[in-house]
Amino acid sequence: MVGASDGIGRALVRALVADGWDVVGVSRSPAEPLGERYTHVVLDVRDPGYRKELSGLGVFDACVYCAGVGELLDVERLGEQRMAFEVNLLGAVDTAEVMIADWLPRGRGHLVVLSSLADAAHSPEAPGYAASKAGASRYFESLALALRPRGIAITNVRFGFVDTKMAKSPVKPFMMSAERAAAVVAGTLASKPIRRSAPWPMVALMWAVGLALRWRVLLG
Fold first, then answer.
1. pLDDT single digits (tens) 134-174
2. Residue 15 gets which letter from DSSP?
3. Which residues pair with 154 in a beta bridge?
4. Which of 77, 125, 194, 217 is 20 to 30 Å apart from 59, CA to CA?
5. CATH code of the region 7-219
């Protein structure tokens, strides 16, 4: 589990441990222990040695990538937008490289990547977040199609607003709790779909918003 110290990741760790899973959690922040079935490792996905250290943690049946950042746009601080690509997209890509290298010889494994319903629309408020999530969605859904014949499943999970520190918009329609979002992710570990989007009212709303913004771009 990458991104296991808070938010959806932490809620999912609790749920999986309670269900009898042995879980290794990775995040850039320490986390409180959750019993003998849980091991926590402090590791930042942006570190140059991330892939090497991750590969040394063992071989896993499944991996959930929950790490994510997203800052509202400040044109005087565009480095904050770059960070979204480093964590939301490139960190996930690096994680997938390590996991899939271990899974290919075994012919099995399951990677779950948390994207966002923001992947469907332009976002003047947080362009780095939306674009990095769009890149993650397209990459991992395409990779899922390529790897499924090799026995490896990849699931792209797209949420709207979840009640975590990432929910920075002043308006948060149809917001889910972290526990409810974690339950959705846990369900994908069993069913292994290529895409899972929730909640459905927010899916419809983001589709409409995305369409309106595309027309705005086209019309200038």
1. 999 999 999 999 999 999 999 999 999 999 877 667 778 89
2. H
3. 111
4. 194
5. 3.40.50.720
The reported pTM is 0.93
Contact 66, 12 (CB under 8 A): yes
Helix locations, the chain, DSSP H: 7-18, 50-55, 79-84, 91-103, 127-147, 178-191, 200-219
Using left for φ > 0, alpha for ψ between -120 and 50, and beta otherwise, residue 58 falls in left
Query: How long, in residues, is the chain?
Result: 220
From CA 34, how far away is CA 39, in angstroms rounded?
8
Task: Evaluate whether 117 touches 159 at the Cβ level (below 8 Å).
Answer: yes
Residue 198 phi, psi (nearest 5): -160, 155
Question: Angle, to 10 degrees, between the axis of helix 127-147 and the axis of helix 91-103?
Answer: 10
| Residue 175 Cα to chain centre, angstroms | 17
Tens digits of per-residue pLDDT, 10-69?
999 999 999 999 999 999 999 988 999 999 999 999 999 999 999 999 999 999 999 999
SS3 label, residue 40: strand
Rounded-to-integer distance, Cα 196 and Cα 84, Å: 22
